[in-house]
């Protein structure tokens, strides 16, 4: 299995409506046959601002690479780059 975790630190000036749109777009990315588990949520801890947590498990690294190379992922990633900074953790799991 392959685990993909992303923390998006949403810029302070982003409106709640734009944040809601971002959450919806990220959640929609989880509809892929190579994904075992897909969770997107706003962090309960707001001490460092608004953080979106994306936590996904893929069948394997190949499924992840296929998903990451898709047009939908590219579109959403481009939008997230405009409204946030992010940190990614990708790990193999047995």
Per-chain topology:
Layout: E1 2-10, H1 16-28, E2 35-42, E3 51-58, H2 61-68, H3 71-83, E4 84-92
Antiparallel strand pairs: 1-3, 1-4, 2-3
Structural class: alpha+beta
Fraction of residues in helix: 25-40%
Bulk shape? globular
Low-confidence stretches: none
Q: List the strand order in the largest sheet.
A: 2-3-1-4
Note down, in words, how this protein is organized:
It contains three helices and four strands. It has helices at 16-28, 61-68, 71-83; strands at 2-10, 35-42, 51-58, 84-92. Strands 2-3-1-4 form a four-stranded antiparallel beta sheet. The protein starts with a strand and ends with a strand. The mean pLDDT is 97.
Short description:
The protein has 94 residues and is of the alpha+beta class. 36% of the residues lie in helices and 36% in strands. The N and C termini lie close together (6 Å).
């Amino acid at each position: 299995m392959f685990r993909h975790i992303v923390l998006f630190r949403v810029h302070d000036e982003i409106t709640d409506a734009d944040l809601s749109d971002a959450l919806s777009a990220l959640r929609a990315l989880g509809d892929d046959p190579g994904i075992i588990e897909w969770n997107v949520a706003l962090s309960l801890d707001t001490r460092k601002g608004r953080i979106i947590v994306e936590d996904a498990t893929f069948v394997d690294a190949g499924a992840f690479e296929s998903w990451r190379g898709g047009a939908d992922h590219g579109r959403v990633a481009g939008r997230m780059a405009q409204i946030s900074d992010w940190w990614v953790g990708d790990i193999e799991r047995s």
